[in-house]
Every structure is written in C-alpha cells, then in structure tokens.
Amino acid sequence: MLFLATYAAFDWQPTLPVAAIVGLTLILAGTLCWAWRGLVARFGIRRAWPILAARGLLFFLLVLALLDPVFQTHTTHQEERQVLLLNDVSGSMQICDGKEPRRVRAQHLVEQIQHLLPEGMRLHEKRFDAAMHPANYMLATNSVEPLGTDVAAALSDAAEHDETPDTAAIVLITDGGDEAIQPARFPVAPLIILGVGSPGGDWPVLGIGHVESPEVVEKGSKFTLSAELYATGPVTFRGKLNSIGVSLNLLQGEKWLPVDHRVVDLRAGRSRVDFTTTSGDAGIAQYRVVVDPVQGALTTLTNRKTIHVDVRNKTLDILYFSRRLGADLKMLRQVMGTDPGITFTALYRSSGSHYTVQTPSTGPAIISEAELTRGFPVDLNRLRRFDCLILGSFPAHEWSAEEMKTLLQFAEDGGGIILLGGDDSFDGGGYGVTPLQPLLPWKCSGSTSSLLREDCIISIPSAAEQSPAVAGLQEILASVGEKGKNKPGGLIVTSINDPGAPLPGAEVLMEASTSRSGHKTPLVLEHRYGKGHILTVASNTTWLWGREPGPTALFYQQFWRQAVRAVCGHVEGGRLLQVSWNKTVFHSGDRVVATIRIPGMTDARLRALVAGPGGSRFIAVESGQDSGVWRAEWLVDSRGVWTAQFTVERNGETLDVFRKNLPVAPLPDEGSHLFRQDAELDRLASRAHGTYFREEQLDCLPGVLETYLRPVSHPESRALTSAGPWFALLLLLIILTELLLRRRLNLI
Prior knowledge:
Layout: E1 2-12, H1 18-43, H2 45-67, E2 69-78, E3 81-88, H3 102-116, E4 121-128, E5 132-133, H4 151-162, E6 167-174, E7 191-195, E8 205-212, E9 216-218, E10 222-232, H5 235-238, E11 244-252, E12 255-264, E13 270-278, E14 283-291, E15 304-312, E16 316-322, H6 328-337, E17 342-351, E18 354-358, H7 369-372, H8 380-383, E19 388-391, H9 401-412, E20 416-420, E21 451-452, E22 456-459, H10 473-483, E23 492-493, E24 496-497, E25 507-514, E26 520-529, E27 532-537, H11 551-567, E28 572-573, E29 578-581, E30 591-597, E31 605-612, E32 615-619, E33 621-622, E34 629-635, E35 640-650, E36 653-664, H12 678-687, E37 691-694, H13 701-707, E38 712-719, H14 726-744
Parallel strand pairs: 3-4, 3-6, 6-7, 7-37, 9-15, 16-17, 16-19, 19-20, 20-27
Antiparallel strand pairs: 1-2, 2-38, 4-5, 8-10, 10-13, 11-12, 11-14, 14-15, 17-18, 21-24, 22-23, 22-25, 25-26, 26-27, 28-29, 29-30, 30-34, 31-32, 31-35, 33-34, 35-36
C-alpha cells in the first residue's frame, strides 16, 4: 500500500441551535461578571481571580461541549491492484502475418506490459484457446485438430473464477474469435483488448467462405450443401489454382469418411461447389468440406469447414389450399419453404377449374402433382398425408359437400387446420350456414363481410403468452414497438375480421386494437374440434409483416413456424406434459426458456433438473398451478450437450417424466475469420466498459491503466468531547479545583 497524503480539518456539530448557544453564552458571561464583582469586593483581585479563572474555564468547556467540535483527518493512499491478462494461444495465433508469428508477438506484448505497468499494479496471466489454461501452459505442436478460439468462454470463466475484488482491469490479447462473441457473463472490471494480427491484405490465402446447409433435415432425405470458395494473393499464387480438389466428408465414429469429391478452378478468386447427399440416422450429423492444401498459402486453417445437420425422423407436411389466390401465399411459402423441418405444398385455383401446384423444391412430393391438379383431395387417406392445412379466403359455396365432409373428418381425427381471414372468410364467406361452422371460433349468422380496414395495434394477452403458438413472441413484439417502422406504436395489421364475441371454448392468442378507439378484437384464436386443433388468423394483411426488416419479419417468421407446429401437436412432451422452447438451436451464452403445459392438472407440482458439461442442478420454476403453465429458464454457459428433465408430481407420486437433450452449437472451425476482427473487438470492449487497441498502439496502455488507479481517500472523524474520557476528566478536575479554592476562602 502506498501512502500519498494526509490532511486534517475541524468541523462543528452543535447539539443546540446556534442562537440558543449564543444566548446561553451571554448568560454565562453575565453570571461570571456578577461573580467577579462580588468576589473582588470581598477578597480583592489577587485572591479572587483563581476562582473566577476556574469558573470561566468550566463555562468555556460547557459551551465547547454544546458546539461539539469534530477533528477530521483524510488519509489518501493507493492500494495494490491486479491486472488479469488473458493470452490467446489458439491455432490462428500460429499464423505468421508479420515478421514473427502472432503468438510470438503476443508474448512480446505480455513482457512489455509487465514492464509498463504503473506502480501499484501486478500482472496475473492466464492462457486460453477453447479452454482456460495456466500461464505456463505450452501449446501441443503435434495436435491433429487446430485448437479453436472461445473468447466468450474465456471471459465468462475469468469473471467466475479469476476476477477478484482488487482486479483493476482485464487485458485480453487475441486476434478475435471465429464467431460473434457473446459471453454468458461479463467481468465487472473494465476490459482492455489488444488486437494481434493483420486486419487483411493481399495475403496468399485459399479458403472456404459461407457454407449453405439446412439446419434440420428429415431422415433418409436428400439435401444439398453449397460451399463458396475463395482465393486471394498475388497473381503468381492464384495462377496455379486451376485444379483444386474439394471433398465432402462425414464423421463416422472418430473417423472422417469421404462422401463426395469435386475439382474447381480458383484462378478467378471465386468459385462455388454443390454437394448433394442423403441423410442417415436421426441425430446430429457432422459434415466437413475440405480443400486440398496448396504450397505457398499463408495457412491451412481456412481449408476446411465443419457443418452440423440435425437429422430428424419426420418433417411437418403442410398444404396451403385456396380457390382465390391471396397475397399471403408468397410470404407463407418463403417462411415455410426455408424451414428445414417443414415440407410446404401450395394448391390454388388459378383460373376456371384449373389448379396450380407448387411442390417442395427438394424431396419427394407428398401427393403427386397429377392428383393435386384435380383440386382439394377428397380421399381422406390421401389428405391425412398432410399434418396441417392452411385454408385461404374464398366463399363457402365453392366447397363441395364431399370436400366439406372430408375436411371435417380430417380435423376430427386430429389434423391441424389454420383459417385465414379476408372478405370471403367466416361470415363474409357464408360459412355460418354450412357444415363447416364448427371449425369457426365464432357463431357466424350473417353473410356480410366483417372485414374492417383500419390500422390495428397488435398485442398478446398475458394469459396466452406461454401458448405454444405464440410463446416467446412477446419479447420480439416489444422490440418492434421500440425500433419498428410499422407504425403507429409498433406492429399493426391494416385489416381485421370482427364477426363478434368468440365462442366459450376459443382461446384468444393475439389481439388487435384500433389506434383511435382502443377497442380490442381477437386476431388469432385457437380452439378444438374433435381431436384436431383449429387456429384462426382473422386478417388478410399479416403478410405485410414479412416485408418489414428486422424484428417485424422475425415476428412473422417465428409466429408461423410455431403456429403450424402447435396445431399439428408437434409440441414435445410426455404422457401428461407438453414442452415448447424459445429456440430450436442454442449457442453458448443463450438463455433457454422452456414453457411447460400440464392441461387439466392444477394440483400438480413440477421439478426441473438441468445437466450440462459442468454438472447438474435443479432450477427454479415459475409456478403456474392455477393456469397449468410453468416456465423454466436457465443460461447456457458452456458448449456440449445439455439435458433438461421435467418431472410432474402429485402428493409425492411421480406422474410423468420428460427428458430432452439440447446440443449447444460447437465452436466454428479455427480460422473461419482469419484476420484480426477490429470491429468485433471494438464492440466487445465497449460492451465491457473498456477500450480496444491494436498491437501497435501498446504505448497507450499505461495511461489507460493509470485511470483505474485512482487514489482511495479514507476519512476519519473524532469528536473532541467524546474521543475518550479526557474531556470528562478535565471537567471534573476544574470542578474539584474550584471547590478547593472556595474552601480556602471559607466560601463553603
């Protein structure tokens, strides 16, 4: 500890108002004057003054006690602080894009920082790649797989285990990660980042850029992986890239087995290669695109890229059907068609009795186009090949009796149906007087369209927030309200059907209120018919959401993808409980939100157990006994496979247990981002209340560190009258002295 300065000062803390103390002082002074005249007259000045002096000193101390003076000292000192240094030793730090490899330059930076540290600071070094290591950790040069870079995990680990109360700052030396850096938790101390490596340039590099691949595919289905290849560097380097081998490999056990091979010409600097393969058994399949190494390239880290594909047993088969083509089909097809877990088929009447069929671009058709061109399937067995039907807006009289009978039986047997609003939907389409009335959430008696054309603001009732069709959408809706361009006041629809009050069995999942009156009208409703789920969307302008950028389009996409799964009953669960998730793919640093529904059991108890790479723990569950809906939430702070287990109990008896493995996305291949990521590192430093420097700006570091060494001042106060017994003893001594003097004069 370094002492810098000490200074002192007086302060007053009067126990009475100042006016009262002044008045009391005048009274005491008057009393002293009166006693002086009497004593001097009787004994003379020489014998009277000792008594009066003792009396005056006593009065002075009494007034001083009322003023209560405080003696304050301020001692300023500087405590020794720790600087925690995190040194990146991952595979990309071996690249030599300067006079020396990045790792050697980083070590020189560590040594210079040690010498440049201001007085009062000590350095504590840790090393990291995909995991944390001590300062004496040595890189294994014979490693077959290059070690990845997990900056987010390093910061989270440092915040949990290495940061101490005396940590002044954390210095991170790295060339940047290979993905967006999102730590599960940030350190409290400010983060100073030193970026090592070249920001780019005409280096001789041969690599793999973006790889386009479905995240989820159906077991046994064909799918395509497309890889963009690039080459940079001088013409002499690119001139020999006329015949470059590119392979697709599949991980089987611990070995990479070849699946396909192509030869490409990269002399122009860009090329694209497509691999078509067939998925195997259900589970996470790992594929790897590998480019043959070329002599003279800066590194081979960019020569391979790993892709993870979730192979599932079955996708959802969706049929869109309408006899009058609406504007919503294009957006629905775009959203459904890009979801690898959904097979989307569109069937609509284009003119007269002619029907147009749009089948999936990949995989076998659910029903042959020849059959579908005849119109709506009236064979129930063929219709059952679809899990969900989305029905557009057209009049009820265009349904045949046989078609209506098949549709009702499809729903009664457990099929999912989504009804779209419009001028010719519900009451406006005359559905209230047809056998299809039970599919509607209203009692429609009229034949006039109830479609209102007015801007209506969207909201989700609190009671419906955990419904599988809209779970997790409230947060997106809030961000639309803050940032969206869809005005006024957030997300809107420009039309809505309002046939009246919903039937008792219908649940309102989304509402729309007019911007003028504020009257709320159900927009999305859910009810049951037989074993089937029916979802009604009472508008024909929700497709406009898909055209807006940012959270508005995300809301549209997530709503429709969740809606079709909800009506199909593809909500995971056990015998009693149903579980829906806020995401389909999780990354380190994400929050997992599980919504658990236990229909009809208000007296049940739910326990949630989460097991990750670091061990297992019980997590708190937000109680929902009254509504039958529970919510469990936790942070994914490490990569690997997490397991969630939910147990339903009643009166100490276990009624149902549900388990699910949640694979957390692994690290991208090392070298995916080869050069220094200045923008990403600068954003990271700003989020952690720190500063970003490039390696050549090291001289700026000491000045920044000194700002975290602000002197600490410790004030100390001592009241003169209460700092020990001395003041009271002095009063007692003066009183005794005056008594002795009075006794000598025979005054007592």
